[in-house]
What does this fold into?
Amino acid sequence: MLAAARACLANRTIWLMGNSVTRQLAFTLQRVLQGEQAMPRRSTPISTWREKLACGRGGVWRGRRPKGPGVDGGSTAGRDGAGDATSDCFGVCECAFERIQSPPGAGARVSFGWVYDWADATIEQTLIHGSPSSANPPPDIVIYNVGGIPTDACAACKETGLSAAKAGAPKLAAMVRRVLHARPALRFYWRSTTFLCDPKHESWNNEVKQTNAAVERHLCTDRARKQQGHHSSGVGPTEEEEAPRTISLLDSFSWTHDTCFAYDDFIHHSQLSFHHVLAFIGAECGLKDAHSRS
It folds into this structure.
């Protein structure tokens, strides 16, 4: 139940790191912790633009915030306009929400950060020591996603697609190992890339599925460990088996493949953000009935 979930997450700092889909989740989680009536809702052009003004835009914008008012960005939506945006995006490009000051989720703090590189020294140090830009402490919980969209689905995206994942996932796993060695109590969730709803490009999802699997193997998520077994040979652990044991999987791909009716476009799905949040709450707080409202 959500009341128990808010109590579970009280006084904890939660970072959601990824792309504009993750940005939607961060806003939804903040609303849940604030005690707003929690239900699926579709973003409007105005609400989406407010999110962009607050936390920046993806694609060629690379996390930078637009300067002026608008709904769809007008002529500033292209590469040239992105260059005119505020240039306050660096490293994590964090967007910190106000700390919840009163029940039901008192003391909880949600932050969102753009992630474009599989491994980044600034992100690594921020996960260990906190944000240098806002003096925020390091997170207690991280929900992380990067690089899962096929290259031809997002020409402006950096280091994305299956080939990039095969090269980048080992670097990500090494970074996460170092972070968890420095902060063993950190709760780290890998959120798999969601289903893409474009009937003209059904092959995209085969690549997304393979990309998710490649990342899971290197991160050695709980599901990947079950599939691989433990120390199956007598020669010692493999590189994947040496990966951190405290990484959990939020499988966002398997349950979104039948939900295209709820998508805003081929990738964004604001009506499902609440269900993503429920999946995280269920995993973190051990609440099997997280869909029940209170």
About this structure: The chain has one domain: 2-285. The radius of gyration is 19 Å.
